[in-house]
Write a structure and sequence with these properties.
Order of helices and strands: HEEEEEEHEEHHHEHHEEH
Pfam families: cNMP_binding (PF00027), HTH_Crp_2 (PF13545)
Protein name: Crp/Fnr family transcriptional regulator
Low-confidence stretches: none
Structural class: alpha+beta
Number of helices: 8
Distance between the termini: 29 Å
Shape: globular
Largest sheet: 4 strands, antiparallel
Strand order of the largest sheet: 1-8-3-6
Mean pLDDT: 85
Keywords: DNA-binding, Transcription, Transcription regulation
Radius of gyration: 18 Å
Length: 216
């Protein structure tokens, strides 16, 4: 079940999904660029997607990694300028259910509850980004790395067992909001304690419970 649709009545969910078209994307394919005209809302059906943003200076950051059950594009459909607010890239072969913006608008006109749900989840997403900003400003790098690893372990598997995260240390650093060398130092300390195992373009979380203990 997609989290965006959970609060809807069954008939409203069916009406929403009836408008969707499946789209497939190859690894590293860009689904949309920041600033592009927004023409659709996407529900993630398979794979993992990275959401990036850039500053005028050219600096870039990865906001989050989306997994099956997540969604993106709702903010652009509600903005007056109808522009994408981030770039979304497939980290692996992925598939989404895309609902065209025009169809979404017509559905909202006949089912006002859908737009209210989208507004609510949008507020939740803004709250998450605000908390991430506060973490970057005031939390130690160690704790930020631990929390992002837990988020990724949940996205790629969940549970308390070992989870393979097919991301490089540079990609993790981008997600944490730091440079690679200090993030590598944090990861190496975790590896020395057998909390994670490091290899090329992948990080294996061996002990999620220990990570949770280190990131209250």
């Amino acid at each position: 079940m997609w989290r965006l649709l959970e609060p809807l009545r069954a008939e409203d969910r069916e009406a929403f999904l009836a408008l969707a078209h499946r789209r497939t994307f190859a690894r590293n394919e860009v689904l949309c660029h920041e600033g592009d005209p927004a023409d659709s809302l996407h529900l993630v059906e398979r794979g993992h997607l990275a959401v990036h943003g850039t500053l005028a200076s050219g600096a870039a950051a990865t906001f989050t990694v989306l997994s099956p059950g997540d969604y993106f594009g709702e903010l652009a459909l509600l903005r007056a300028d109808r522009r994408r607010t981030a770039t979304v890239t497939a980290l692996e072969p992925s598939r989404t259910l895309a609902v065209a913006g025009t169809a979404f608008n017509r559905l909202c006109e006949h089912n006002p509850g859908i737009e209210r749900v989208v507004s609510t989840v949008l507020a939740d997403r803004i709250d998450l980004l605000s908390r991430r900003l506060l973490e970057t400003m005031y939390e130690s790098l160690d704790r930020r790395v631990h929390r992002r690893l837990l988020d990724l372990a949940d996205a790629y598997g969940g549970g308390d067992g070992a989870v393979v995260i097919p991301l490089s240390q540079a990609q993790l650093a981008d997600l944490v909001g730091a440079t690679r060398p200090p993030v590598n130092q944090v990861l190496q300390r975790l590896a020395d304690r057998n909390v994670v195992r490091l290899s090329r373009s992948r990080i294996e979380v061996l002990d999620p419970a220990e990570l949770r203990r280190r990131s209250p």
